[in-house]
Amino acid sequence: MRVKLHLSYDGTSYYGWQKQKDPQLKTIQSELENALFSLCRLKPKTQGSGRTDRGVHALDQVVHFDLPEDFNFSNFDWVRGLNRYLLEDIRVWSASLVSSDFHATRSALSKAYIYQIQDGCTPNPLISRYTHCVSQKLNLEYLKEISKPLIGTHDFSSFQSVGTELFTPVRTLNSIEWIRKDEHLVEFHISGSGFLKQMVRNILGTLLHQYWLKPFKKTDLVELLDQKDRTKAFGTAPAKGLTLSKVIYPKNLTLSS
Known about the structure:
- The protein is an alpha+beta fold.
- It folds into two domains: about 1-105, Pseudouridine synthase I, catalytic domain, N-terminal subdomain (Alpha-Beta Plaits, 2-Layer Sandwich); about 110-245, Pseudouridine synthase I, catalytic domain, C-terminal subdomain (Alpha-Beta Plaits).
- Helix content is about 20%, strand content about 30%.
- The longest helix has 13 residues, at about 30-40.
- It is globular and about 65 Å long.
């Protein structure tokens, strides 16, 4: 019996999604599995759609886990029950039964992230834990132009941090958008088939680094992709500005909601 959860979290106080060897290090996964045990006296292994890094947030993280076939799913109010045992910076907002071939990671068609930046201002303390601050106003038209070569299917080795072994560093980016939300708040939206370790933050760190080195040509970014060498790109943007916003799945995998 497979269950799918949707949850949101403020990642500030956590060592990322994935459980750590040291049980004293709080992670989203460890807190969720502890809440599951408190609710139903079972501790199933949870599988998230992706391993958000330490300090990264999520609007819609998707998780699955399995229960025994004879377990009565309807006996529990999963949303209210789990939230009762979770701290307020983690909230479950949906629970449903799904077909056994659903997998939170492998079934995903695409993922989307948002990175928030305060620009050209004294940082607003009410949103500082969710934003990266830069001292100068950003020219979004210029940033849109230099970001274009990233769209499509490429080897993103130049933007992959070490620490994760993968079959291939090739990924497809579907879209990149720069959106000004107000006078001093910019959002960088990026979506694709999947992302390498710290890939979004490495892309953004490189774009912002190159932004200050204007004029930066689109061909410069093409050369970085072609080199397939992380040392040729630039720094990693801070984790606190990044949020996993949405994971898209085929609709036919849900049995009930």
